[in-house]
Amino acid sequence: MKAPGPLEPIAEYPPSTYPKGHPCYVSGLEDCAPPPASGTEEGQDTVGRMGPIGPWATGRLDWGPLSGLTGTRPVVDRYSITRFSEGEWKKMNAELVSGAGQEQHRANLLDFNSRRCAEQMAARTDKDQLTNTRRLEQRAHDVHRWKCELERAVNLMGEELNLLEHQRQRLKTAMGVLRMPESIAGECLERRTARLEPDLVRDQVEEELIKEIALINEVRDLMSRMLAQMEEQQKINKAVKQRLEMDWSDKKEAYEIETANIGLKNTSPTILFHPGATRFADGQSTPETWEFLTRENLTLLETERNKSKDLRHILEVMLTDISRDLRVQSDRVETSLACRIVETDEARRRFENDLLQTLRRIADTEKLILDLKSAIRAQDFPMKVAQTRLNNRMGRPRAENCRDVPQFGLVDEVKSLSESVSALLGQLKQAEETLAALLKTRSDLEKGIMVKRKTLSIDKDRCQEIRSHYPSSVALTGY
């Protein structure tokens, strides 16, 4: 048998046996398999295995235990190096073609699945993005709603702060105005201490002035406590306003962030990868606690705002009552002072009238004394005449010195003149005593008039003039 050339087909597989359209390099069903070699074991693959080396192989070959088996050592001749049989070659080609088809099928399936998955993932991504955008819009709406509520609350607290500050300034003004009634009452008491001794009495005016000073001290203590409460409430209101402003600022910043997130798209130039963005930061709040904190701030606002309103209402009522009480007490002081001035002036006029009558009586008494002295002196000449007559009659001689009727008449005349002089001297003494009493009365009246004029000068010209500057009810309320 002639050995086949390198380009000739093997005799066991003639080309005429290939089916139409079947490639020659792939084994078909009608291809004849070479007969199994003797001594092959059952189950051993013998399809297309190369047979023993023929005698035509002229190459040098070392013999070994596996000589004659294809794949152990190449068959070397001068034409080629042979490793596989044609059946193995066709089987290998068929496996390669089958593997290529399977890989192409897998590639087509992978392409279909990948495109379908990509479309589904794109749709899912768009849906998730749209859903989260709507969630962000709802969240932004909630944040904006609470931000507006907080802004309204901040404005309300700002208005309340202004109102409370206005009332506080009003209270401080009222406390400043309160110094004027205190100064007036104190000066009235001090001025009235300069009254002279007879009028230095604790009258109703002084009692009312003391009551007025005590009332002013009580009012000042009440105002001081109210001022301390208002300042404390003002601090609390400022703290609440600051807390609301911080919450509003956080809401504003969060709203801006949410608005920016809503505006982000796949084509936005500011989007970047942030690997750690999915981590939950420490201290994050839940929606329940977030809303609870905001509601708590608003509730705190209403509570403190109501307290501030109540405090302002109490201050309004307190200032009205204080103004009324001070004005009532001032009216009492002025009424008692006016009555005291009327009484003092009436006493002064009475003293002046009495002094005028006393001066007249003094003048009359002095004239009477002069008349009495003249009358007494006028009795001297008749006394001298009578005594001279008696003395001359004592010079009558002996029996002529008789106690006759003229003698007794002259004696009676002297006696009568003596009695008249004594009576006139008694009247003169009484007149002088009366004059001394009238002079003392005049001195007392003049002193009393001076005291009353001094008292009137203090009560009317000073105290009443000072009290005319007493603050009005409107000024006492701080306006």
Automatic annotation (TrEMBL):
Keywords, in A-Z order: Cell projection, Cilium, Coiled coil, Cytoplasm, Flagellum
Secretion signal span: none
InterPro entries named among the record's database cross-references: Tektin-like, Tektins
Coiled-coil features, chain-numbered ranges: 414-448
One Pfam match: Tektin
GO cellular component, one term: nucleus
One BP term from GO: cilium movement involved in cell motility
Record has Cytoplasm as a keyword: yes
Keyword Cell division: no
Intracellular or extracellular location(s): Cytoplasm, Cytoskeleton, Cilium axoneme
UniProt family annotation: Belongs to the tektin family.
PANTHER family, alphabetized: TEKTIN (PTHR19960), TEKTIN-4 (PTHR19960:SF12)
Stated name of the protein: Tektin
